Amino acid sequence: MRVLTLSCLCLAMLAACSQKSDRELLTEACIADGEAPETCACISGVMEEKLSPDLYRRTAAAIGRERRDVGDFVESLSMSEQLEFAGTLSAMISCELSGQEGE
């Protein structure tokens, strides 16, 4: 019985280690939408830096894990959360512009 319990515990720990971070999930979703990897890494970093931890986590879950449309997700937020999200737009646009310069 101990061996079975330890085996299950080890499997659970391995599964937890293989999970992707919120930043990785957002970056991959962005790349899947056709943006350059460098641009997506920049955008994900901006979101992590400028959004509250709770809103960042929910954004990663909705866009990265659930593959929800960004516009639909933002519309589902409260007005204060929409304003918080809007506060990141200029920095995200800068990421896109700097990514285009290298192309």
UniProtKB/TrEMBL annotation:
This is Lipoprotein.
